[in-house]
Amino acid sequence: MVTVLVNGACGRMGQAVLKAVQEDSELKLVGAVDIKGGEDTGKLVGLPENGILVESNLTEALQRLNPDVMIDFTRPDVVFDNVMTALRNKVSPVVGTTGLSDGQKEEIRAAAEKLGTPAFIAPNFAIGAVLLMVLSRQAAKYMPDVEIIELHHDRKLDAPSGTAVQTAAMIAEVRKAHKQGHPEEKEKLAGARGAEYEGMHIHSVRLPGYVAHQEVIFGGLGQTLTIRHDSMNRESFMPGVVLAAKKVRSLCGLTIGLDKLLEF
Ligand SMILES: NC(=O)C1=CN([C@@H]2O[C@H](COP(=O)(O)OP(=O)(O)OC[C@H]3O[C@@H](n4cnc5c(N)ncnc54)[C@H](O)[C@@H]3O)[C@@H](O)[C@H]2O)C=CC1
Ligand SMILES: O=C(O)C1=N[C@H](C(=O)O)C[C@H](O)C1
Fold first, then answer.
1. SS3 of residue 78 by DSSP
2. Which positions bind (S)-2,3,4,5-tetrahydrodipicolinate (predicted)?
3. Residue 176, pLDDT score
4. Where in the sequence numbering do the catalytic residues fall?
């Protein structure tokens, strides 16, 4: 049995994770933290009351409950401190929160190795999104001109999405960096061509009604190829989160990406 503390428990993802953990026979929910605090973690997600309340002090909860794993879905500006707190307490972080910088990831890698506590980060836990990234990397070998459009709900704090950045990074593994578009192109309105990652353009759409969606469009001579993924709800991420929680303790150092836990 893997014991789990959920951080960010009152949020959209946190609540879905609370439910998924309580419904899985190999995971045991032992604690939950959110700056909002207070509620019973069964009642909060429409399950029977279980007496495990959402607390507000992460360090205190980790030290008292000593879980195997902390699952974090909080905010880009607090996730780094949360992860380092978990590692210092020998608890393995499974991180879905996006927005960690490359430098922060390297610090997490070093701490995980030094403290002998494995850590796992995935910018997207939905299997379809993982396939989109892996297939995009394959396609870019043959169609290296590519633009990424990500579309999310308008409560999202970071842009571009973690998935879009990870997709660009995976494409960059096989694509020689080059500037796309006309060499003399000029933006008439700042930002019209989106963000740039090694010459690839990333466009972020934020609207009510969306959950999480991404298109990767490849252009070639007389043809285009579009790969699209849609998360219709937050349950789409749960099989990946549950898998990572079960596997993280068997990993070493820092692992980034759900593709590392799957066979291709
Ligand atoms: N990797 C993946 O597959 C996915 C990642 N995400 C990411 O997860 C993060 C959370 O997303 P949502 O659940 O939609 O956000 P949300 O805003 O609904 O939930 C965040 C929760 O964290 C709590 N919180 C804020 N600061 C905290 C702190 N210092 N300690 C403990 N709790 C704190 C808030 O009170 C809130 O309840 C975002 O970064 C989002 O991009 C979202 C969906 C899937
Ligand atoms: O904020 C979200 O909702 C999501 N965030 C992640 C990201 O930034 O890629 C994963 C998914 O797209 C949902």
1. coil
2. 153, 162-163
3. 95
4. 152, 156
Residue of the CA atom closest to atom 23 of ligand 1: 8
Residue 97 and residue 82 share a domain: yes
Q: Are 162 and 124 in contact (CB under 8 A)?
A: yes
Per the structure, the complete domain to which residue 39 belongs is given by 2-121+235-261
pLDDT of residue 74: 98
pLDDT at 37: 84
Cβ of residue 237 lying under 6 Å from some atom of ligand 1: yes
According to the annotation, is 252 in a ligand binding site? no
CB 146 within 8 A of CB 219: yes
Residues 7 and 107 in one domain: yes
Tell me, yes or no, whether 7 and 52 share the same domain: yes
**Is residue 6 predicted with pLDDT exceeding 90?**
yes
Sequence-ordered alpha helix ranges (H) in 143-257: 162-172, 238-247
Average of pLDDT values for 238-244?
A: 98
| Average pLDDT score, the chain | 97
140-151 pLDDT, tens digit each:
999 999 999 999
Q: What is the ipTM of this complex?
A: 0.99
Tell whether ligand 1 has an atom less than 6 A from the beta carbon of residue 36: yes
Cα(135)–Cα(150) distance, rounded to whole angstroms? 16
Which of 161, 166, 167, 238 to mutate to test ligand 2, by most ligand atoms within 8 A of the CB atom?
Answer: 161
Q: Is 35 touching ligand 1 by the criterion CB < 6 Å?
A: yes
| Residue 62 in this model has a pLDDT that exceeds 90 | yes
User: 13 with 113, same domain?
Assistant: yes
Q: Tally the domains of the chain.
A: 2
Does residue 150 sit in the same domain as residue 42? Answer: no
**Residue to mutate, 13, 44, 57, ligand 1, most ligand atoms under 8 Å from C-beta:** 13
**DSSP state for residue 76 in the 8-state scheme:** T
How large is the average pLDDT for residues 194-212? 97
CATH number (domain holding residue 39): 3.40.50.720
| CATH at 165 | 3.30.360.10
Query: At 234, which helix (H) or strand (E)?
Result: none
Ligand nearest to the CA of 86: 1
Contact 214, 164 (CB under 8 A): yes
